[in-house]
Amino acid sequence: MLQVLASAAGGDSRECILNGAGHCAAPSGKSQQRGRCTVTVVVTGLGAVSCFGSGTGALWEGLLGASRRPDPAPDVCGLPARPHLYAVPDGDAPARGTGRTGALLAAAVAEAVAEAGLSAGDLLDAGLTVGTSLGDIDLSERGAGTDADASVPPATHRVTASLAARFGIGGPGQTLSTACSAGAYAVGWGAELIETGQADVVVACGGDAFSRVAVGTLQRFGLLDGECCRPFDTGRAGMVTGEGAAALVLESAESAGRRGRTALAELAGHGWSCDAHHPMAPEPSGDQLRRSAASALAGLDGAPGAAVLHRAG
């Protein structure tokens, strides 16, 4: 999954999904031309909970300061060996009495919705896309068969349903569980809901909390570096993972204008593909990566200014 964010001052030409007849599925009143439509998707709200604490401000300052070091995995993971990970500080972490992933996501969504200035009426028709690998699997791990509710399999869609109920989001909803790319897929899917006229506003979010299954699986595959994250270093031994959540409020530029909101950024493009080569490793030729990149960059004028890379291990 690859995405392109542009400044809010960018052009208004957007690549959009084609309908079955091969025409741009633009909302009523939007112009159409050769599979492209003029629906501009902008970001009007941001939210985050990370190892630096609660809020996008804490995340930004923490990244600039580069002062955070990974800590031993929390006891909740229940592993014999405790790898070093980036955990949400106890003072900023939601209570563990509820599903931790859902609680982290709720905190991020609350911040994003507040910054976007969305009212209850706005949220009633808004869409919701959630990316999460395992959802609130910690409920089952903690229940251990002793609590009727906690022993229910934590299907990932339950997190989405809970968020929709909590914030009164009544539009189309979607849960995406594509491992590390789930949050990016949520943003791309949310953009397509707007581009195709299914929603004017979408809350797109992604998050996961540490759990025995999550950390144990990464450890079993040998993907965790016990010391630090050092990409491109000859001595690298894997990655250092973290827990947290992030949320974006996406909406059409027309909707943002009606509400008098300032766009923080424009989503200039997104692309996805799947090579089905290996559970962890991409197909060696890179053809599918190039395909998704080309799709994401199709609507961008000029070259991208930065690239953010990811790899599991």
From TrEMBL:
Protein name stated in the entry: 3-oxoacyl-(Acyl-carrier-protein) synthase II
Domain Ketosynthase family 3 (KS3) intervals: 38-313
The organism of origin for this protein: Streptomyces griseoflavus Tu4000
PANTHER family attached to this UniProt entry: BETA KETOACYL-ACYL CARRIER PROTEIN SYNTHASE, POLYKETIDE SYNTHASE-RELATED
Any GO BP annotation: fatty acid biosynthetic process
Record carries keyword Phosphoprotein: no
UniProt keyword Transferase present: yes
Keyword tags: Transferase
Molecular function GO labels: 3-oxoacyl-[acyl-carrier-protein] synthase activity
SUPFAM superfamilies on file: Thiolase-like (SSF53901)
